[in-house]
Amino acid sequence: MANVKNLRTGFTGELNDTSGVTAKAKKAANYVSDEASAVVQSAQDHPSATSTALLVFGAAAFVAGYLIGSASNGASTRRSYW
Question: CA–CA separation, 2 vs 12, rounded Å?
Answer without folding.
Answer: 12
